[in-house]
Amino acid sequence: MDLLEYQGKQLFAKHGVSVPGGEVADTVEEAVAAAERVGFPCAIKAQVLIGGRGKAGGIKIAADAGEARAHAGAILGMEITGPHGEGPFTVHRVWIEGGSDIDAEYYASVILDRSEKKMLAMVSSRGGMDIEAVAAEDPGALIRRHIDPTREFDAAAARAIVDDAGLAEDVRDAAADVLVRLHEVATTEDATLIEVNPLIVTADREVVALDAKVTIDGNALFRHEDLAEIADSAVEDPQEAMAKERGLTYVKLDGNVGILGNGAGLCMATLDVVAQAGGDPANFLDAGGGSKAEAIVSALEVITSDPKVTAVLFNIFGGITRCDEVARGIIEASKQIDLKVPLVVRLDGTNSEEGLRLLEEAQIPGLEVESTMLGAAKRVVELANP
Amino acid sequence: MSIIVDTDTRLVVSGLTGREGSFHGLRNRAYGTDLVAGVTPGKGGQDVEGVPIYDTIAEAVQEAGANTSMIFVPARFASAAIDEAIDSGARTVIAITEGIPVQDMLRTYWKAREAGVRLIGPNCPGVLSPGKANVGIIPAQFFDPGKIGVVSKSGTLTYQIGNELKQAGEGNSSIVGIGGDPIVGSDFIDVLTLFEADEETELIVMVGEIGGDAEERAAEFIAESVSKPVVAYIAGFTAPPGKQMGHAGAIISGSSGTAQAKKEALEAKGVRVGESPTEAARIAVETLRG
To answer: How far apart are the first and last CA of chain A?
Structure first.
């Protein structure tokens, strides 16, 4: 789960990392009032979960109330697409923070390195720009050090990284302290990514996090009530919200072929074969390893509540899941939901004969059975795009 | 020979008194796995269908001679249970539990490495050596004994491919589910090493998915250290960046971890990659029969 900039900064402040003071606003009026309180000049920053906001016009400096009004008006409601094609995300909230006197811009991050199975700390004296470009152009300018998970990450270890990065002598202790605290955020708040770009040195020689990119491990939300609340409120899409409420793993996509599979891997593979057959998947929905009838009803409701869906594919390989249970779920769903779109079902594996017999007997209008995954993908694409 | 679980496996199940733990533990026993003990703190001295329950895994190792531990404990307690298994003297720990926080697994991963204990999972379906032993939740009916080793991040995708191999008349030496989490105890390379050394295994099927770079690193390793043919399947070509596809590890961040990048890395090292699970199974059968 990614945090918005201001949420990340609140987490930093909790752990003693200096951040500029500020306020959030959801309307232009709120933004102007917040700017008056924060003082001018102030920065008005779009709160969306992607990088490249500045380039997209999502960060503006306001010198007075008139500019604050104009900038907030332009940014709220703006659609921003990320550098890797993420989104577009609509800006619903801005963060207004006091202007900072910037003497130097550094870069600091603590991220999970899956390959090495360790957290990786990175520091550079060349912050404020695209760090991937810095690393590509001058690899020596980005210092990378793995942190041993079995030992304490202390001030001395952090100071060694900061020294190697060649930060200004007089702020090295302060920068090392920030790095130790960022690592503490990772371990105690269960963050898998913390990136501060830029980490600035102010005219008063204070080290301040001017941005915050934080990813929290969704598996750890059970021990962070405050973060779990953010996770609940962050879901915007109506189908995703509905699925989350029902405990289903659902991801909304752009197409018109609704998809239900069991198991994350098989479900991903189903999206792929539908795409290979020329179709456009509308969603990812993993009904889980032990899909029971009620879960199937619930899942089908979520899929068909997306108005773009014109046909649905059920791809079930029963391992622990029993195909007769799935068939009962489909039959139950056809009674409870007014199905307006055709359904293609492929059932294989545990108790598939019984499941297929039940479906045959039920004679559900608009339901077709296919015996293979590829055949089912082809058929659902035909039905979705008549 | 098979890998990881075999006829000499003596299994202790943490969570055997729970609903899932008893269902799958007893299922494993019905398959022929030597289930020697269960562990639930405070329930020592009881039994589940004749299987003795101990308070600790160490007691199960010492008193019942367990050498392999399976963890079926809820996520918030699971890393502590894995740590206990690592300290118990068991040589293999198979963790089925899904949803364990990454920070917990970072510590537990290194603890297992330092102790020299083989950890499989978490968030995995376990390991099956057809005709010999089954530890986990893999439905054994889709797999016959044979010459193909399977290593996979995904459960159901493995069953799908296993079923296609069986229909084509081929079987498996062992099927290893390594799990779909960002930090797993054993990666593709660890299991490829075991299959390379296993006399019974003649061909290896590797099932990967988006996220991380385990497939890319496996490709390098295969080129350098694996003499047996490897056939791969990768899931997640249509996954958009930034969205987590079910498994905690299946997320494309930035430009890395895409299915396309993994496919290209494998093909560059001579590994044939099937477009679908069906095609991967077909290529495996063709290659095996020359």
So the answer is: 38
CATH fold label, A238-384 = Rossmann fold (3.40.50)
Secondary structure (3-state) at B27: helix
Best mutation target among A152, A239, A272 (most B Cβ atoms within 10 Å) is A272
| Interface ipTM | 0.93
Best CATH choice for the domain A1-20+101-234 from the list 3.30.70.330, 3.30.360.10, 3.30.470.20, 3.40.50.720: 3.30.470.20
* In contact, A77 and B232? CB cutoff 8 Å: no
CB B274 within 8 A of CB B231: yes
Ranges of chain B with pLDDT below 70: 254-255
51-80 in A: which are within 8 Å (CB) of B? Answer: none
Q: How confident is the model at residue A82 (pLDDT cuts 50, 70, 90)?
A: confident
The CA distance from B94 to B120, in Å, is 5
Name all domains of chain B by residue range, CATH numbers in brackets. Answer: 10-120 (3.40.50.720), 139-289 (3.40.50.261)
Give contacts of A 130-169 with B, CB under 8 A. Answer: 132, 149-150
**Over the stretch A265-293, which tens digit does the pLDDT of each residue have?**
999 999 999 999 999 999 999 987 556 77
Confidence check: pLDDT of A298 > 80? yes
What are the residue boundaries of the structural domains of chain A, listed by start? 1-20+101-234, 21-99, 238-384
Residue among A97, A195, A325, A370 flagged as catalytic: A195
pLDDT digits (tens, 9 = 90+) for A14-40: 999 999 999 999 999 999 999 999 999
The residue among A385, A386, A289 whose CA lies nearest residue B97 is: A289
C-alpha distances out from residue B174 to A54, A239, A278, B228, Å: 52, 40, 36, 15
The CATH class given to the A21-99 domain equals alpha beta
Cα–Cα distance between A125 and B110 in angstroms, integer?
Answer: 32
Residue A217 Cα, gap to closest chain B Cα (Å) = 7
HEC string for A10-66:
HHHHHCCCCCCCEEEECCHHHHHHHHHHHCCCEEEEECCCCCCCCCCCCEEEECCHH
